[in-house]
Here is the input.
Amino acid sequence: MRQSSSTTQSDPGNGEPLFERVGGVLAWGRRKLEPSPTAALDAQLLLAHATDTTRVWVLIHPEAPLSRNQRTRYRDLIGRRAEGVPVAYLRGWTEWHSLRLDITRDVLVPRPETELLLERAMDLARRHQWRRVADIGTGSGAVAVALARSLSDAAIQAIDISAAALGVARRNAASHQVADRVQFFLGNLAEPLTERPDLIVANLPYLSDEMMDEVSADVQHEPVIALRAGPSGLELIEQLDCQLRVRGWRVPLLLEIDPRLSRSARTLFADDADVSVFRDYAGHDRIVFVHPHTA
Here is the structure.
């Protein structure tokens, strides 16, 4: 009986005065998502989405009343988030590198770590005056769009094997007014390219079969095709390298990897390239820069 009473009192759809207002409903959502370290933030973002407001509005209006439809919508969103569905999929968009990007279940949710990949790409392109940059495995188009916005004189080529993902990337390029400077190609890695790029940026699937067994509930909701590489985790990186060698293209590569693959990635390119590894904000090896000796 005690458990049943607690459940009833904590239900934002039950008509209790406390749970008809922003503050009470927000507290309920946070409790439902605990012990997740992002429980409070997720609860705020989802209530903002359910009420068509903003996170700031939610935080400064704890006494604001909510309609039954808003409470029902929020309860459903919290339930799905508790099952591990990422917030970006529930809202249909995310904010990354100060860009609002459409996100669907056809693409990965852009990670903060990938901002380091973007920053290194922008720095290298400017320093070496590289004007043709290919983003292989573009997904949502996050990196391609950000590059096009930051490098006004660069031509960006975005490639993905998923037609659905390319559709998302095209929408994001259009919404940020860079569709005229990003070319989109459907195909496997570098195969669709007809010209040698100055730089290839790639956030390819890099999880090994073993790593896939260990992913979090959030990641389990993301497309496997964008996560799993194969038994070692380096399969797609090796395939890309092979494609470039067959064409005789010695192209600088900027690759995002799992930190556990750092040593293997170094070894893969060490014979005929200078290899640098950069750490992410948590201090883990995350970005590999491969500069071929003959490039």
